[in-house]
Write a structure and sequence with these properties.
It is built from five helices and no strands. The chain has about 400 residues and is an all-alpha fold. Microtubule inner protein (MIP) part of the dynein-decorated doublet microtubules (DMTs) in cilia and flagellar axoneme. Forms filamentous polymers in the walls of ciliary and flagellar microtubules.
Length: about 400
């Protein structure tokens, strides 16, 4: 208890002085270190701030450059898309022209084929492989060739339209991505430290996934532009080809159509001339037939007329044979009657034989004339049938064909 109440030890004044000096020195040393830390901290903060600002400025500059690059390529893609869309629309009008041209070729071909079928109904000698038929066959071949060529060109046009639309789709997809990327970079350019929705994203710095190099990025859009240019150039060349094909096809069809029409006109004229000549011959034959019939009648009458003198002479002679008794005298009259009968009979027999021979010849000629008349009438009917087929059926049917420029 006595120890507990014992007073604490006392220090020497020098010790107190030393202790105070040490406290002061320690405090000043601590203060100095603290000031250095503060100064270093401020320097570091300033350096970090400057570095951050520099980095931010550089990033902003890069983002702005990127935005300009995206805008440039977006404008390029927009231009190519507009050109591609316009070219496709124009090519679609050419496709419509091809389709209408194909449709307009069907009627002339059907008419040409009908003309060929109708002309198979010509009869007799008129069923000839004439110039009209040759040109009709050629016209059908020309039309079939045009239809085949237009069909192939239409297929080629459909394929080019498909390629144009494929290029358009690639441009649209690229433009869509460019638009999205530009919106994202616009958003990034607008961000500041005070933006409310800025946040931490631990995995944002990773470059794994589908990242491409700037070169690949440029190549991708450049390839889309080149493909669009290629298809547009192909489309332009195809349109020029279609123009040439349609023009040439229309000219070929018109030319052959007119050649066939000229051949028809010439053929109809020839058939009409032949028919007219046959009709002239028929009239001549009919006149000759009438003359021959009169001649036969005259010959028959002449033969009949020769019977009269013979009958008279024989009647006289027969009458004098009935004289009675001595009157039945062989006198000069009797002698002359007998001589007359013999002479007349002889002459008449000779004349009748000649007349009968002539009559037989005349009747034979009449039969020949009848056969000739029948043959001419049949041939005239053949010509009339040919004229009906060529002039009425074919030529009138061909009048409905008018070949416009495609």
């Amino acid at each position: 208890m006595a120890r507990l109440l014992q007073a604490p030890p006392k220090f020497h004044p020098s010790e107190w002085d030393i202790a105070n000096k040490m406290q002061r020195a320690s405090t000043e040393s601590q203060k100095s270190r603290s000031e250095r830390v503060i100064a270093e901290s401020r320097r570091l903060l300033d350096e970090i701030e400057k570095t951050t600002q520099k980095t931010r400025s550089d990033v902003n500059k890069k983002i702005e450059q990127r935005r300009e690059e995206i805008k440039f390529w977006k404008q390029e893609l927009d231009n190519k898309l507009e050109q591609t869309v316009h070219e496709t629309e124009v090519l679609l009008t050419f496709k419509t022209r091809l389709e209408k041209s194909l449709e307009s070729c069907k009627e002339p071909l059907i008419i040409a084929q009908k003309c060929l079928l109708n002309r198979q109904k010509r009869a007799g000698i008129d069923l000839v492989h004439d110039e009209v038929e040759q040109e009709l066959v050629k016209e059908a071949e020309v039309l079939q060739g045009v239809i085949a060529l237009l069909g192939r060109t239409l297929e080629q046009t459909n394929e080019q339209i498909r390629l144009n639309r494929s290029a358009k789709y690639n441009l649209e997809m690229d433009l869509k991505d460019k638009f999205t990327a530009l919106m994202i970079d616009d958003y990034c350019a607008s961000l500041t430290n005070n933006t409310p929705d800025s946040r931490y994203a631990d995995r944002a710095v990773k470059t794994e996934g589908n990242f491409v190099s700037p070169e690949d990025w440029i190549d991708f859009s450049n390839l889309n532009v080149e493909k669009a240019d290629k298809q547009r150039n192909n489309s332009l060349a195809l349109r020029a080809l279609i123009d040439g094909i349609l023009s040439q096809a229309a000219n070929d069809m018109r030319k052959q159509h007119e050649v066939v029409n000229v051949a028809f006109r010439n053929q109809v004229k020839e058939v009409k001339d032949a028919k007219h000549k046959l009709e002239t011959l028929l009239a001549m034959v009919m006149d000759e037939t009438a003359s021959q019939e009169k001649n036969i009648a005259a010959l028959k009458k002449a033969i009949a007329d020769k019977e009269g003198p013979v009958k008279v002479a024989q009647t006289r002679l027969e009458a004098r044979n009935h004289r009675p008794n001595v009157e039945l005298c062989y006198d000069t009259a009797q002698y002359r009657l007998m001589s007359e009968v013999q002479e007349i009979t002889k002459n008449i027999q000779r004349q009748v034989e000649m007349l009968k021979d002539m009559l037989a010849q005349a009747e034979a000629e009449l039969k020949g004339l009848s056969r000739r008349q029948l043959s001419l009438e049949e041939e005239i009917q053949v010509k009339e049938n040919t004229l009906y087929i060529d002039e009425v059926l074919c030529m009138q049917m061909r009048e409905s064909v008018y070949i416009n420029n495609f």
